Amino acid sequence: MTQPVTPPANPDVTIRVGSAPCSWGVWFSDDPRQTSWSRFLDEVAEAGYHWIELGPHGYLPTDPARLTDELARRDLRVSAGTVFTALHRGPAVWDATWSEVRRVAALTRATGGEHLVVIPEFWRDPATGEHLEPDVLGPRQFADLAGGSDWLGARLREEFGLRMVVHPHADTHVGDETTVTRFLDATDPASVSLCLDTGHYAYCGGDSVRLIETYGERVGYLHLKQVDPAVLAHVHAEGLPFGTAVRRGVMTEPPGGVPDLPPVLRAARALDVDLFAIVEQDMYPCPPEQPLPIARRTRRYLASCGA
């Protein structure tokens, strides 16, 4: 494993490191196996982070005044909200999509966030592996995905002042190098930026450094994550869905996996733009005492990498 190398100092570039509820085993708005929202906020602050994502809508308090107060008491701030969308299903679903997205967008904006992370819908059930749709979009569906993304990004900017960052994700139609670059080439840079999740991109066979160096002007946000290559090999060999892969431990604590994060951070700093870099280590479900020690070690590790 390459040792951490501090990127060259650049006083004009700020990488704001944070964490997210999924690093505490949170995938749903309400699940008895998940860490409580108050414990998550206490522990993410205790681990040394000052920025968080909202996670699934309804997990954290949805009253803006209450949530702002809870965050302020712990010296925390919001970097982004998150939504899943199925824009490839065409304009017939876009109005319904907006009614869901606007709830998250409003809370994100009201609590000071400036980004909305948009994840394409799964093509197979993440728990059972049941195929819900073909894993490759046809021309009409892809055109609807690109057009819908442009529409949604422009509307979020105009109505909420939010920057939409689309998150390539395992078991979705935007995941590997081919689908990511095709999607970026087909969408409007003024409306659609990229949330580069280093773990999901590696899961799908992508090279994060090469993507930053090639499409850096589209990278508006980072998720820092690693995968265990040995577990990943079994996942691909067995054709496992994402939820099963997570339970197998495919997402691992840095620096024990891939990609190596110091080169990613160096490439990101070379863009000369301020970025959020939000730590995500999917562990659903997990024992309540597991996340905090990992979060502390990960924060120390990233500090050793200059982040």
What does this structure look like?
The chain is α/β, with parallel strands linked by helices. The protein has a single domain (15-304), classed as Divalent-metal-dependent TIM barrel enzymes (TIM Barrel), CATH 3.20.20.150. It is 40% helix and 15% strand. The protein has helices spanning 37-46, 64-73, 94-110, 139-160, 177-186, 198-203, 208-215, 229-238, 242-247, 261-269, 291-304; strands at 15-19, 51-53, 77-85, 115-120, 163-166, 193-197, 219-224, 226-227, 251-252, 275-279. The strands form two sheets. The protein has an eight-stranded parallel sheet with strand order 1-10-7-6-5-4-3-2. Helix 7 runs parallel beside helix 10. The longest helix has 22 residues, at 139-160. The chain is globular and about 50 Å long. It comes from Streptomyces marincola. This is 2-keto-myo-inositol dehydratase. Residues 41-301 form the Xylose isomerase-like TIM barrel domain. Pfam families: AP_endonuc_2 (PF01261).
